[in-house]
C-alpha cells in the first residue's frame, strides 16, 4: 500500500474538495438505498425478535407447549393430561388476550394459575416480599399484576384501578401488585398484565377454554424419551389441539411476515441499485475528468495496479460512508415504521403490543455489506479504466469514448436477452410461497433496460439529427454531438434516470391499481348502514357478548344484523382465519363479491342450505383450493370437512379466510358474541337516529364504537394509504436521486468541455446558444430516461401486479394506471431535470473563451 | 393438631390477599352446632381451613412393616363463595396434599406433595360427605367405610378402612383449642382406630396389606396456631384397645410449652379429655436432620398417671422428615413410631404416629 497511499492526495482528495457536491450526492444515493434496506430488515427483525422474545419469556421453562389449532383448548384437556403429573411433568394452563386500556394503550393479558405458574414462569415483585404470597393476591376477582415500567407509564401503584376494555365494556381492575421487569414481566416488552386464569376467562368470555398449557418436563430427560413423551401427549389431546416445542409459534409468525419482508426488501434493493449506479457514474466521470492527473502520476512512476486500487478504494470509501449513513438513517426509519405499525403483522398468539427496535447485527451487517459490495463492484469498471490510462495519450480524449461506442450494440443485444429472460421468469410459480422468479423478472427488466440505454442514446441522436437541427438550430446539433460524444456519461445518466422513473412508474401503477381495486371492493362490500364494534384502541380487539347481538336484533329501526365472528387457526403451522356471518343476510344483499364473478346471492344461498363454506381468494391461492374442493376445519368435536361453495374477493386479510354461516360456526366452535356487526336500517331511519338508539340501549353497560358507512369507508382507505405511504416516499427519493444524477452528469460534461465550449465561443457562438445547447442536452437526457423508464416501469408494474402480488398475497388486482398521477409526476421530473440543467448551462455560458484559449 | 400446617400455610400464602375480601363466607365455630355424620366428615365451606389426615401401620403377608401418611388440606382463598362467577377456575380454595410411606424394614422414607386450586384436573372436596381428591389421590366414605388411594411415582396404596370405634370428638363437643388466643379453636374429630386392608403396589409387585389406621379431621376459621412456633403431636394405638391423642404447642421461644391437650379413648370408644396436668412428655433423645440441620426430639416417655400409662415412643426410622417446598412450604417430621411399655410399668405396647413441626428452619416455617 505504500506505493498506493501517496496517490490518494492528487487523485482523490483534491478532486473531492473540488466536487464536494457530487460526492455528497453519491454518498446520499448509497445511503438512501442502504437505509431502505436496513429499515426493512431491522423492522422485520425487530418484530420477529420481540415476538420470539415474548414466546421465550412466556414459555419460560416449558419443554413442550400445548396450543390450539382452532378456537381454543377445551379446559378438560387438563384432566386428559393428568397422567403426566405422576411422571414429574408440571401442567401449567394459561389464557391470553390482547386488550385495549382506557388510555388507549394496548396490552397483552395473561391469565395464569398462580399455584402452578411459578413452575414455568418467574415473577419478581418490586417490594421485597415473598413472591408466592403476592402472586396469590390475584386470586381476588379482577385483580392484576402490572410490570413496573407499565405501571409507571400509566401512573399505577398497588391498589389503583386499571380500566380495560373487555367483553364490550370498560372493566375496572385492581392493581394487586407491581412486578419487576424480570421473568414473565418482560413478555411483550413489558406491555403485559397478569390476572388469575378465572378472571381472564370471565373478562374475555373464554370460560371453558385455555390458550396454552405449558409442560415442564423432568430434568435430565433424554431426547428419545422426550420425543416419546411428546408423542404420547399428542395422542391424548383432543382434536384441534397440538403439542410441540414452545418456539414453534415463532416459525408461524416468521412465515407470516416473510412475504411482507421479501417484497419490501426487493423494493429496497431497487433503491440501492439506483444508488450504486450513482457510484458508477460518479467514479466514471471522475476517472474521465482526472485522466490528466492519472497520466501524470503514471508518468511519475505509479503502477497501473496502484491506480486501480486507488479508485477501487474510492468506491469502497464512498460505499462505507454511504452505508454507514444509510444504517443510521435506516434505523431511524425502522423505528418510525415500528411505532406506526405497532405490530399488526403479529396480531395473534400473544402478539406484540409494541415491538421495540432491535438493532439486530445480522440485519445491519447485511445492509452494510450490500451497500459496500455493490459500491465496490460498481467502482470496478471505472477503476479498471483508470488503470488502463496510458500516460502518453492522456491528452487525447476521444479514445475511450471510441471503445465505448463499439460496445453499444453488443450491450444492447445483451439487454434484449435479459428482457427476454425477464419475460420467461414471469412464468414459474412461487418458490416456497415466495415470488422469487417474479422478483428476478423485475431485476432482469431493470438490468436489461439499463444495458439498452447506450443504444437508445446513440439511436436517438442519430435519428433526431436532421429534424432537431431544422427545428432547433445548431444548438441541437451540438447537444446531439455531445450526447454521443460522451456516451459513457450520458448513457449512465439516462440509465440511472430511467431506473428511478421505472421504479416510480411501477410502484405508482401497482399501488394505483391496488387502490382502485380496493376502492371498488370496499364500495361493493361495505354496504350496511352502521358498523358496531367493541370500543377500545384503534385495532379491532375483543368480542361483544351475545347479549349485544340480541339487543341489536330486537332494536326498532334495524332491518338486519350481520354479526362477524372469527378466530385465528393454523394448519401445519400455516395461519389462516375462520370467520362467520349470517349467510341469510349476505344472500339477501349480495355484498360479498365472488372472485370468478359468479352470482353472490346464488352461491351464498347454496352454501347456507348445504352447510358449505366460502373461502377468500388469498385462502384459495395459498392452499390451492377451488370451488367443490373440501376444506377441513378444527371443530371442537373433531375435524370437520366442508365443501367450498365459492371463492370471494377479500383484500382485508392476506392470511386467507374460511367463512361459514353463523349457526354452523357456533355449532362447530361453540363461540358466541361478535367481533363486529353490520347493521342495515329500515328505510326512513337515519344512521344518526339508529346510532342514538343503540347508545341509549347500551349506555352504562357496553362500550361500543359505532361507525357509519361513510366513516368506515374513509377509515378503510385511510388505512390503505397509510400502509403505502412508505412506498411513495421511497420512490420520491429514487426519482430525486436520479434527477440529481442528470444534474451532476451535465455539470461534469460542461466542466470537461470547457475547452470545446471556449472554442465555440471564439468561433462566434453566443452565450445564450451555448447555454441552450446544454439545456437541449438535458432535455434529451430526461426524455430518453423517461421513455426508457416508462417502458421498464410498465413492465415492472405488470410483473408486480400479476406475478409478485398474486403469488405472495393471492389478490387479484385489476390494472388501473393512475394516468393523472403519472403525468404529474413525470412532468415534475422533466421540470426538475430542466431546472437541474440551469447551473451547468449558466456555467457553460459563462465560459471565458480567452482564458480557455490561453490554457491551450 | 397436624392441623396447623394448613392454617400456617394459609397464613403464609394468603395473608396479603385476605384483607380485601368481604368476609361473608367464613364464620367462627358455633359450639352449639351439633356434629352430625356423615355430613361432618365432608368439607365445611364456611371454615377457612380444613384437613383430613390419615396415618397408619401396615403389614404384608411376609411380615414386612410399613407406615403411611396421607393428608388433604383445604384452605380458603376467597372470602366470598364464587356463586356469581362463571369460570370453572374461579378460586375458592387451595388444596394441598402430602403422601408419605415409611418402609420400616427397608429403612426408606418417600413422600410426595401436591397443590391445586379448584378447577378442571385439579382438586375437589364435597360438603355432603367425605369425598376429597387431589388429582388422583382420593379419600372417600362409602357405606360407613372409607376408601383411600394414593400414588407416588411407581407406588400405589389402596386401602379400605373400617372404623372399629365411633368418631371421637376431641375437646369440648369437638372444639379443640389450638393457641393461647381464645378464638383459636378448631372442630376436631377422629377415627382413632380403623381396620386397614388393601394393596401396596410397587411397579409390578403387588402386596396385600393389613393394619391399623387413624384419621383426623379438623376445620375452623379462627387464628389457629397464632403465636406458636411449633408443636408435637402424638397418636397412640395400644394393644389393649385404648387410643391416646396428645399435643403440645410451643411458644415463641421455641421450647416452652404454651398449651397442651389430649384425649384418651377407651376400647369401647368412650373418650375423656386430658388436661395439661393429666400427662407429661419427656424427650430422651434427639436427631439432627442431615438436610435441614433441624434438631428434632427422637424418643419420648409419655406418662398419663390416671390411665396407668408410662410409654416409651421410639421412631421406627430416624429420618421421616418432609420438606414440602411445593405445597405447604413447611418442613416437618411425621413418622411411624413403636410404642413400648416403660420397664417396670404395666402399660401395654402399641404403635404411634408423631408429628413434629417448627424444628427446622427459622421459626416454625422458615417463611415467617
Structure description:
- The complex is a heterodimer of chains A (856) and B (368).
- With 856 residues, chain A is α+β, with helices and mostly antiparallel strands.
- Chain A is 59% helix and 14% strand.
- Chain A is built from 26 helices and 20 strands.
- In chain A, the strands form three sheets. Chain A has a nine-stranded mixed sheet with strand order 6-7-5-8-4-3-10-1-11. Chain A has a nine-stranded mixed sheet with strand order 16-17-15-18-14-13-19-12-20.
- In chain A, strand 16 (630-633) and strand 17 (640-648) form a beta hairpin.
- Chain B is mainly beta and 368 residues long.
- In chain B, the strands form two sheets. In chain B, strands 1, 2, 3, 4, 5, 6, 7, 8, 9, 10, 11, 12 and 13 form a 13-stranded antiparallel sheet that branches.
- In chain B, a hairpin with a 6-residue loop joins strand 18 (280-288) and strand 19 (295-304).
- Residues 11-22 and 362-368 of chain B have low confidence and may be disordered.
- Chain A binds chain B through residues 75-76, 78-82, 85-86, 91, 113, 115-116, 129-130, 132-134, 136-137, 139-141, 174, 176, 196-199, 201-202, 207-208, and chain B through 12-17, 20-21, 77-78, 82, 85-91, 94, 115-117, 119-122, 135-136, 151-153, 329, 367.
Offer a concise description of the structure.
With 856 residues, chain A is of the alpha+beta class. Chain A has four domains: 202 residues, no CATH class; 185 residues, no CATH class; 268 residues, no CATH class; 167 residues, no CATH class. Chain A has a nine-stranded mixed beta sheet. A nine-stranded mixed beta sheet of chain A has the order 16-17-15-18-14-13-19-12-20.
CATH superfamily of chain B: AttH-like domain
Please give the CATH class of chain B: Mainly Beta
Helical amount of chain B: under 10%
Q: Given the C-alpha coordinates, what overall shape of chain A results?
A: elongated
Which assembly state applies to the chains in this document? Answer: heterodimer
**How many beta strands in the DSSP annotation of chain B?**
23
Structurally, the number of domains of chain A stands at 4
Element order of chain B: H for helix, E for strand = HEEEEEEEEEEEEEEEEEEEEEEE
- By DSSP (H or I, 4+ residues per run), the number of helices of chain A equals 26
Amino acid at each position: 500500500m505504500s506505493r498506493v497511499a501517496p496517490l490518494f492526495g492528487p487523485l482523490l482528495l483534491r478532486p473531492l474538495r473540488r466536487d464536494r457536491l457530487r460526492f455528497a450526492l453519491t454518498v446520499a444515493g448509497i445511503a438512501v438505498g442502504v437505509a431502505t434496506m436496513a429499515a426493512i430488515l431491522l423492522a422485520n427483525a425487530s418484530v420477529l425478535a420481540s415476538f420470539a422474545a415474548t414466546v421465550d419469556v412466556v414459555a419460560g421453562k416449558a419443554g413442550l407447549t400445548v396450543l390450539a389449532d382452532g378456537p381454543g383448548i377445551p379446559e378438560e384437556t387438563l384432566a386428559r393430561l393428568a397422567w403426566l403429573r405422576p411422571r414429574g411433568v408440571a401442567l401449567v394452563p394459561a389464557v391470553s388476550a390482547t386488550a385495549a386500556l382506557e388510555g388507549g394503550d394496548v396490552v397483552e393479558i395473561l391469565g395464569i394459575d398462580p399455584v402452578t405458574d411459578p413452575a414455568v414462569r418467574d415473577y419478581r415483585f418490586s417490594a421485597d416480599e415473598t413472591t408466592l404470597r403476592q402472586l396469590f393476591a390475584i386470586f381476588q376477582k379482577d385483580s392484576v399484576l402490572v410490570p413496573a415500567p407499565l405501571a409507571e407509564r400509566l401512573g399505577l401503584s398497588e391498589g389503583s384501578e386499571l380500566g380495560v376494555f373487555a367483553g364490550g365494556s370498560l372493566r375496572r381492575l385492581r392493581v394487586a401488585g407491581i412486578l419487576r421487569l424480570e421473568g414473565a414481566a418482560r413478555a411483550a416488552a413489558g406491555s403485559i398484565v397478569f390476572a388469575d386464569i378465572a378472571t381472564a376467562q370471565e373478562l374475555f368470555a373464554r370460560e371453558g377454554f385455555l390458550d396454552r398449557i405449558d409442560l415442564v418436563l423432568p430434568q435430565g430427560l433424554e431426547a428419545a424419551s422426550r420425543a416419546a413423551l411428546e408423542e404420547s401427549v399428542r395422542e391424548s389431546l383432543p382434536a384441534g389441539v397440538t403439542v410441540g416445542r414452545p418456539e414453534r409459534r415463532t416459525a408461524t409468525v416468521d412465515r407470516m411476515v416473510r412475504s411482507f419482508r421479501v417484497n419490501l426488501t426487493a423494493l429496497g434493493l431497487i433503491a440501492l441499485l439506483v444508488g450504486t449506479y450513482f457510484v458508477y457514474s460518479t467514479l466514471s466521470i471522475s476517472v474521465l475528468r482526472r485522466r490528466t492527473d492519472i497520466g501524470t502520476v503514471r508518468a511519475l512512476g505509479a503502477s497501473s495496479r496502484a491506480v486501480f486500487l486507488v479508485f477501487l478504494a474510492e468506491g469502497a470509501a464512498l460505499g462505507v460512508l454511504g452505508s454507514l449513513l444509510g444504517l443510521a438513517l435506516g434505523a431511524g426509519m425502522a423505528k418510525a415504521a415500528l411505532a406506526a405499525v405497532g405490530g399488526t403483522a403479529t396480531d395473534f398468539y400473544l402478539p406484540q403490543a409494541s415491538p421495540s427496535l432491535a438493532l439486530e447485527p445480522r440485519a445491519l451487517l447485511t445492509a452494510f455489506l450490500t451497500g459496500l459490495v455493490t459500491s465496490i463492484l460498481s467502482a470496478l469498471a471505472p477503476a479498471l479504466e483508470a488503470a488502463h490510462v496510458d500516460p502518453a495519450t492522456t491528452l487525447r480524449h476521444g479514445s475511450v469514448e471510441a471503445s465505448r461506442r463499439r460496445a453499444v450494440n453488443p450491450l444492447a443485444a445483451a439487454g434484449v436477452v435479459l428482457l427476454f429472460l425477464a419475460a420467461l421468469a414471469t412464468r414459474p410459480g412461487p418458490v416456497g410461497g415466495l415470488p422469487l422468479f417474479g422478483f428476478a423478472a423485475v431485476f432482469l427488466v431493470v438490468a436489461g433496460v439499463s444495458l439498452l440505454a447506450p443504444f437508445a442514446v446513440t439511436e436517438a441522436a442519430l435519428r433526431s439529427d436532421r429534424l432537431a437541427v431544422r427545428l432547433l438550430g445548431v444548438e441541437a446539433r451540438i447537444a446531439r454531438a455531445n450526447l454521443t460524444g460522451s456516451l459513457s456519461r450520458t448513457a449512465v445518466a439516462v440509465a440511472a434516470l430511467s431506473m428511478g422513473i421505472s421504479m416510480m412508474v411501477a410502484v405508482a401503477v401497482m399501488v394505483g391499481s391496488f387502490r382502485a381495486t380496493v376502492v371498488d371492493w370496499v364500495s361493493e362490500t361495505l354496504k350496511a348502514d352502521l358498523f358496531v364494534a367493541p370500543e377500545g384502541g384503534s385495532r379491532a380487539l375483543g368480542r361483544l357478548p351475545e347479549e349485544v347481538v340480541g339487543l341489536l336484533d330486537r332494536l326498532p329501526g334495524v332491518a338486519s344484523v350481520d354479526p362477524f365472528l372469527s378466530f385465528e387457526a393454523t394448519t401445519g403451522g400455516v395461519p389462516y382465519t375462520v370467520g362467520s356471518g349470517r349467510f341469510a343476510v349476505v344472500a339477501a344483499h349480495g355484498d360479498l363479491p365472488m372472485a370468478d364473478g359468479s352470482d353472490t346471492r346464488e352461491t351464498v344461498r347454496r352454501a347456507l342450505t348445504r352447510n358449505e363454506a366460502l373461502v377468500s381468494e388469498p385462502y384459495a391461492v395459498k392452499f390451492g383450493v377451488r370451488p367443490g374442493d373440501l376444506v377441513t376445519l378444527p371443530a371442537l368435536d373433531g375435524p370437520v370437512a366442508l365443501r367450498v361453495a365459492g371463492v370471494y374477493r377479500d383484500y382485508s386479510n392476506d392470511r386467507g379466510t374460511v367463512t361459514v354461516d353463523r349457526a354452523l360456526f357456533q355449532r362447530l366452535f361453540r363461540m358466541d358474541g361478535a367481533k363486529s356487526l353490520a347493521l342495515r336500517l329500515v328505510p326512513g331511519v337515519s344512521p344518526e337516529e339508529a346510532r342514538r338508539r343503540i347508545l341509549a340501549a347500551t349506555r352504562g353497560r357496553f362500550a361500543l364504537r359505532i361507525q357509519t358507512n361513510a366513516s368506515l369507508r374513509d377509515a378503510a382507505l385511510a388505512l390503505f394509504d397509510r400502509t403505502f405511504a412508505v412506498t411513495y416516499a421511497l420512490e420520491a427519493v429514487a426519482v430525486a436521486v436520479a434527477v440529481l444524477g442528470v444534474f451532476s452528469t451535465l455539470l461534469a460534461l460542461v466542466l470537461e468541455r470547457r475547452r470545446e465550449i471556449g472554442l465555440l465561443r471564439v468561433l462566434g457562438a453566443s452565450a445564450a446558444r451555448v447555454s441552450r445547447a446544454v439545456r437541449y442536452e438535458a432535455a434529451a437526457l430526461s426524455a430518453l430516461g423517461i421513455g426508457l423508464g416508462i417502458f421498464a416501469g410498465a413492465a415492472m408494474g405488470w410483473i408486480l401486479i400479476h406475478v409478485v402480488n398474486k403469488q405472495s398475497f393471492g389478490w387479484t388486482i385489476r390494472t388501473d394506471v393512475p394516468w393523472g398521477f403519472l403525468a404529474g409526476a413525470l412532468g415534475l421530473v422533466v421540470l426538475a431535470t430542466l431546472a437541474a440543467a440551469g447551473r451547468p448551462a449558466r456555467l457553460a455560458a459563462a465560459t471565458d473563451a480567452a482564458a480557455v484559449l490561453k490554457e491551450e | 393438631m397436624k392441623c396447623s400446617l394448613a392454617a400456617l400455610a394459609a397464613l403464609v400464602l394468603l395473608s396479603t390477599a385476605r384483607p380485601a375480601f368481604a368476609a361473608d363466607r367464613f364464620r367462627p365455630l358455633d359450639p352449639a352446632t351439633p356434629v352430625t355424620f356423615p355430613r361432618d366428615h365432608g368439607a365445611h365451606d364456611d371454615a377457612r381451613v380444613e384437613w383430613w389426615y390419615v396415618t397408619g401401620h401396615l403389614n404384608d403377608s411376609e411380615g414386612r412393616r410399613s407406615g403411611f401418611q396421607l393428608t388433604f388440606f383445604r384452605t380458603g382463598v376467597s372470602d366470598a363463595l364464587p356463586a356469581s362467577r362463571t369460570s370453572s377456575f374461579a378460586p375458592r380454595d387451595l388444596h394441598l396434599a402430602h403422601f408419605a410411606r415409611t418402609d420400616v424394614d427397608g429403612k426408606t422414607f418417600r413422600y410426595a406433595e401436591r397443590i391445586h386450586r379448584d378447577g378442571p384436573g385439579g382438586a375437589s372436596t364435597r360438603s355432603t360427605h367425605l369425598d376429597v381428591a387431589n388429582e388422583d389421590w382420593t379419600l372417600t366414605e362409602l357405606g360407613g367405610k372409607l376408601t383411600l388411594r394414593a400414588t407416588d411415582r411407581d407406588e400405589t396404596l389402596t386401602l379400605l378402612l373400617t372404623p372399629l370405634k365411633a368418631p371421637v370428638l376431641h375437646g369440648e363437643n369437638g372444639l379443640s383449642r389450638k393457641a393461647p388466643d381464645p378464638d383459636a379453636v378448631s372442630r376436631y374429630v377422629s377415627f382413632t382406630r380403623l381396620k386397614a386392608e388393601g394393596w401396596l403396589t410397587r411397579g409390578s409387585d403387588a402386596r396385600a396389606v393389613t393394619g391399623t389406621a387413624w384419621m383426623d379431621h379438623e376445620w375452623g376459621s379462627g387464628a389457629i396456631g397464632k403465636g406458636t412456633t411449633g408443636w408435637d403431636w402424638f397418636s397412640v394405638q395400644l394393644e389393649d384397645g385404648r387410643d391416646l391423642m396428645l399435643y403440645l404447642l410451643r411458644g415463641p421461644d421455641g421450647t416452652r410449652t404454651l398449651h397442651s391437650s389430649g384425649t384418651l379413648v377407651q376400647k369401647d370408644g368412650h373418650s375423656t379429655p386430658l388436661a395439661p396436668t393429666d400427662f407429661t412428655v419427656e424427650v430422651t433423645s434427639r436427631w439432627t436432620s442431615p438436610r435441614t440441620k433441624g434438631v428434632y426430639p427422637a424418643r419420648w416417655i409419655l406418662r398419663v398417671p390416671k390411665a396407668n400409662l408410662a410409654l416409651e415412643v421410639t421412631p421406627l426410622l430416624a429420618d421421616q422428615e418432609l420438606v414440602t417446598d411445593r405445597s405447604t412450604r413447611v418442613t416437618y417430621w411425621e413418622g411411624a413410631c413403636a410404642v413400648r411399655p416403660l420397664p417396670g410399668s404395666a402399660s401395654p405396647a402399641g404403635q404411634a404416629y408423631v408429628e413434629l413441626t417448627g424444628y427446622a428452619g427459622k421459626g416454625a416455617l422458615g417463611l415467617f
